[in-house]
Amino acid sequence: MIGTIAFILLVLFSIDWFRRNKFEVFMVSHGLVLVYYVTATIHSPNFIIYMAISVALFVLDIAGRVLLGDTLFPLETTLFKKKSDSLVQIQFPKPLPCTKSSYLPGQYVFINIPEISSMEWHPFSLSSAPNDTIMEVHVRALGNWTKKLVDLASQKQQTRIKFDGPYGNLKLNYRRYTNMLLIGGGIGVTPLIGILKDIFFFEGTIRTRLQT
């Protein structure tokens, strides 16, 4: 019965409303998996086989993300600047595995600012290009967490950051074209900045005309 209740609560707290409005509750609720595993193993000792498989997959997932450049420990930002009343610019160093060939323009990362919340992770498009020496995101205040980020940038010039990624895949091979039109509005221009930087880097090898 306890395991069943834990499983039902786990499913309940994973719905979209909790992920968007009560993210910390959503994250803490993952601990219910342990309750479910323990009670299921007591009920049927053979369940430990399935538990071992899922734990092994979880460990492999963590190891794979670290190898791709994720940070287990916070990094010091190289730039943490409030650009306006609702916009923050963040730059942070690339971890060693995250070389210039390991991500693509237009991809995004999940970032975590421990000073705001140790459990909240939010996705943001990279405005840096693979050949930049740093990674960069621009964040607009659109919700509670991002508003706290703006407030923090008003008080401090540096903070610590963790990131997960990059993710996403830009299917368009824009380097093959001589003319290209990029359209973006508001904070939606951030992935386009990374693409433009990449184009400018390769402009010596491909002839690209940019019209703004």
UniProtKB/TrEMBL annotation:
Annotated InterPro entries: FAD-bd_8 (IPR013112), FAD-bd_FR_type (IPR017927), FNR_nucleotide-bd (IPR039261), RBOH/FRE (IPR050369), Riboflavin_synthase-like_b-brl (IPR017938)
Keywords in alphabetical order: Membrane, Oxidoreductase, Transmembrane, Transmembrane helix
Organism: Arcella intermedia
Keyword Oxidoreductase: yes
TM region positions: 34-60, 180-202
GO MF annotations, alphabetized: oxidoreductase activity
Residue intervals of the FAD-binding FR-type domain: 70-173
Classification of source organism: Eukaryota, Amoebozoa, Tubulinea, Elardia, Arcellinida
Keyword field contains Transmembrane: yes
Pfam families assigned to the protein according to its UniProt record, in alphabetical order: FAD_binding_8
CDD domains with a match to the protein in the record: NOX_Duox_like_FAD_NADP (cd06186)
Protein name: FAD-binding FR-type domain-containing protein
PROSITE patterns for this protein: FAD_FR
GO cellular component: plasma membrane
